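Quick one: structure for this chain?
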Amino acid sequence: MAYLTPEQIARIEEQLAEIEPKYNRLLLTFSHRKYSSEQAAEYTRHGYLRRLGTLRRCVENVFTLIPPETDSVPDRNVLHDAQFKGVRRECVWKYRQFSLGLGL
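Got it. Here's what it folds into:
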C-alpha cells in the first residue's frame, strides 16, 4: 500500500527538481554580491553558502534513501541514515532567512 498518492509523488518530484536551480540562483546571487565588509563576505561564502550546499545534499540524500514512491516501512538502518543525513535545523533556519528575502 502506497503512503502517498500519485499526485503527491508528482508534486514532491516537481519540488525536488526545483532545488538545484534555486540553489544555483542563491549561489550566484550571494557570491557576486558586494558586501559592506570583508568579514560579511567571508561569513557568506564560508558560512551561509556552505550550509546551503549541505542542505541541498541532505535533501537529495534523504530522497535517495527513501524515495517518495516507497510503499513499505524502510529498514531501521535506512531510517537512521536518513535521519543522520536529514535536514539540520540550523540549515533550514538559514535557508528560510535568506530565501524568503529573495522571494523563492
